[in-house]
Design brief:
With 269 residues, this protein is mainly beta. It is built from three helices and 15 strands. Strand 2 and strand 3 form a beta hairpin.
Length: 269
């Protein structure tokens, strides 16, 4: 833990020192270094979430993704949207808005990434929310790298936290796990309806039903959570197996939201 604490303090000290100095051309770094899809891991290698860094404009790379509940900041997964606040040759700092997927509560935070070292497919950093820090490792996902337009070197970029852009709605985010594909129903007899409940339990209230032929179902989240990287990389049968032990929050084409057992969901690939 002493090493972890030293890393966080050193990285944060560099950040604080940088914002106190005037920007200069030799302090900047190309944004292309961080473009792509990344898996977030904890110190023990556990999956903490995923994120995608994409190009909004030449001076404002955007970030979107999800931080899992086991990161310890929230009681449920949190969606992340953000943009770069500062970039140097040694570090990136992103301002991030976190939104709890269950309660909708929001919180501001930062992601600090160190560019020291030569491995550009593995970056070390820390996430800060309400003065709490978490060491993370980012691993680039093979075959899922975004190919941005070349971005010229920029001077210090500081965007107000209140103006964090959301990801473009037309952007196709790979590596999103269960939330990526649309779904249809399986294991439901043709003359039966599948009940939709208010919570991930059979004792909760029924809010509606879906016919066996229902299509284009969206999955918003699953309880317990499913590792998005493993889900993307496994076969259809593997996806069925991973869905078999969870409840999923879904949304139908008509806009109805609720929970169903994952074993009734079939990804449309």
């Amino acid at each position: 833990m002493d090493l972890a604490r030293t890393f966080i303090l050193a990285l944060f000290a560099c950040y604080c020192a940088f914002i106190a100095q005037p920007a200069s051309a030799n302090q900047t770094h190309t944004f292309a270094v961080v473009f792509g899809v990344w898996a977030l891991e904890g110190e023990g290698g556990e999956s903490l979430g995923f994120m995608d860094v994409y190009e909004v404009s030449v001076d404002a790379p955007g970030l979107s993704g999800r931080l899992f509940a086991n990161a310890g900041f929230f009681d449920a997964s949190a969606d992340m949207t953000g943009n770069v606040h500062i970039n140097t040759r040694e570090a990136f700092v992103f301002d991030i808005l976190f939104e709890n997927t269950q309660s909708g509560a929001r919180a501001d935070g930062r992601l600090l990434l160190s560019l020291k070292g030569t491995d550009r497919d593995r970056l070390n950093g820390s996430i800060e929310v309400d003065n709490r820090f978490l060491l993370v490792t980012l691993r680039r996902q093979p075959g899922k790298t975004v190919q941005p337009q070349p971005v010229p070197s920029q001077t210090q970029t500081q965007t107000p936290r209140a103006n964090i852009p959301a990801a473009p709605e037309t952007f196709d985010l790979p590596g999103t796990g269960v939330t990526g594909p649309a779904y249809r129903l399986r294991n439901v007899p043709a003359n039966r309806q599948l009940r939709i409940r208010t919570g991930p339990d059979r004792s909760t209230q029924v809010v509606g039903q879906m016919p066996a032929a229902e299509q284009e179902i969206l999955v918003l989240s699953c309880t317990p959570e499913i590792d998005p990287v493993r889900y993307d990389q496994t076969s259809r049968e593997g996806k069925h197996e991973m869905l078999g032990g969870v409840w999923c929050q879904i949304q139908t084409r008509s806009g109805l939201r609720g929970y169903v057992l994952g074993r009734y969901l079939d990804p449309i690939l």
